[in-house]
Amino acid sequence: MTTRHNRGFALVETLLALVLGLVMSLALTQIFITAKSTWLSQTSSASLQEDARFVLTKMIQEVRLVGMFGCLGSVRDVSLDAGFSSASQAPVQWDARQKSLILTTAAVGTDKSWHNWVIHTDCAKSATAWSRGRAPSLGPGEFAIAVQRQVYRFNEQRGELTLDGQPLLSNVRAFGVLFGVADSIQAPSIARYTAQPEPQLIRSLRVTLTLFDPADRTRERSFSVVGSLRNRVG
Q1: Is residue 31 part of a domain?
Q2: N vs C: which end of the chain shows fewer Cβ within 10 Å?
Q3: What confidence score (pLDDT) does residue 181 get?
């Protein structure tokens, strides 16, 4: 007569298997959470960098064209309320109290629909500034230069940077501007940076943006860029 023995798992073995499975599940869950957290942090950091790059690149393009009103040293102003003359006398300004950067610059890009004035010049004898929509047809040998007044303002309460009153960038912690100035009007090189320069001494602008992630997935980051003025101001 043959005796059959039934074999199975004891209670201790079952509990041990459950504990090991639970530990492995917790480890895999932790790995997944860590990987997701790292991915979110890197994505958020890249987003901050991309936002800052876009805004600062636009600003520096405009800084380089500040005061670019044609080939002649003087422009006849026939714009409404002599608005062009008022803006062109101080084409770059920084209002530390209002946290506003004001630039009077040649319009950037092919879309010049937002310009304030247009200059008709032949780069030899004549240059005349007109208000937008009021300029006549170009004369013989003349070409047009669109000029715009851009106002970048930092709203600290809302953490927002605006352009001409329209939202441009959110999640901004700080916005600042310093001017690279020379020691004299004739000197081409920058001697120091200051917040309140004499217009004739300005050679460059250093713009700084500090951005943050509202979900706190990455630390706040500061971005800074320097742009040289190609045209003397003041």
Answers
A1: no
A2: N
A3: 93
Angle at the Cα of 100 from the Cα atoms of 99 and 105, rounded to 5 degrees: 155
Residues 26-43 have pLDDT tens digits of: 888 888 777 777 777 888
Q: What is the rounded CA–CA span in Å between residue 223 and residue 211?
A: 8
Contact 149, 103 (CB under 8 A): yes
Q: Which domain holds residue 75?
A: 49-228
Q: Is residue 174 part of a domain?
A: yes
What is the pLDDT, as a whole number, of residue 188?
86
> How many domains does the chain divide into?
1
The answer to whether position 64 is within a domain reads yes
The one-letter amino acid at 117: W
Instruction: Check if the beta carbon of residue 116 is closer than 8 Å to that of residue 150.
Output: no
Q: What is the pLDDT of residues 123-174, one digit of tens each?
A: 999 999 999 989 999 999 999 999 999 999 999 999 999 999 999 999 999 9
Q: Is residue 9 part of a domain?
A: no
Tens digits of residue pLDDT in 91-121: 999 998 899 999 999 886 545 567 899 999 9
